[in-house]
Amino acid sequence: MGFDLSLLGWNDALAAELPAGLVPGRVSRVDRGTAEVLTADGHVRAAQSAAVRRAGAADPISLPCVGDWAGLRELPDGRHEVAAVLPRRTALVRAGVGRTSRGGLSDDSQGQVLAANVDLAFVVEPAMHATDTADLSRIERLLALAWESGATPVVVISKADLLGDALDSLMDDVAAVAPGVDVHAISSVTGEGVDLVRAHLGGSRTAVLLGPSGAGKSTLTNALAGEEVMVTQQIRASDGRGRHTTTHRELITLAGGGLIIDTPGIRRVGLYEMSEGVDLVFSDIEGLAADCRFADCGHDAEPGCAVLAAVESGELPYRRLASWRKLQREAQWMASRTDARLRQEKTRQWKVIHKEMRRSGRNRP
Questions:
Q1: Which end of the chain is more exposed for a tag (fewer CB within 10 A), N or C?
Q2: 256 among the known binding-site residues?
Q3: Which domains are assigned to the chain?
């Protein structure tokens, strides 16, 4: 059974980018160099072409990922290959999680695409995780990732039934760290809030679920799909903590319209090439900073700092300022690492060019 590509997000702009002779499809899963692709003719399993692999070796971000639109080529033996990855509207990119790389730089200076062409990023955080309530700093970090991608973030507090009367206070705290973002509380036990989350979807809109293992992302996926499309496990009664079940990213089509990408729990969320993601998460601090005496105030010990005054008065929690400082330092550090990697790559390319020029000169008659 084939798919209506328009319901998957296909449009004239994408059609204009499709190389001649290729068939369009949307990547629903990637596994060891092969991709599951949704096409007008149905599910197709395709390997990466040599050109795509070469491009990925030079820049891992260019490799096919879940949510991508791809151009497929049918081979003489009936198999298919991903011959092209079409330009992305949005992309959730975190710093790489490897430990080594060429030239002595760790792979965190390279990026890893978690999902592409998504309209919404549902940041899923459990109301209770182990013995603690929701991790506000993790929410801030995931919101920075979401804003930077170009998607619209939405915070979803799962397992809301575990907090009882304390839920209202938690929701106030979460709303304070997510300015300009919709925040919903949901419960897989009672069904509370699922309709509010579903209301964000529809048509060909695509959402991705981001959050730690055991947050209930797969349970939410099943609730939105209206059937069990992802395997889930029971939470522990002692602390309400779920167990890790999802091991891959997968694009799911929803019967009521829209698509959703379920993801494994994210343990490490390194910031990658941040331009304004952190600023959008901390728009409250940016607003206060406009009243600082000095335009380049670092909000550390400068006189006339409106941000420090807000902390002293209790208007701004110190935890919020500390989190802003940490993410700003990380974003700046990653920018310097990326610049160093690009300089090394440029130097390497020029060495290859000069070597080839010398070799060609020696071979002249």
A1: C
A2: no
A3: 5-87 (2.40.50.140), 93-262 (3.40.50.300)
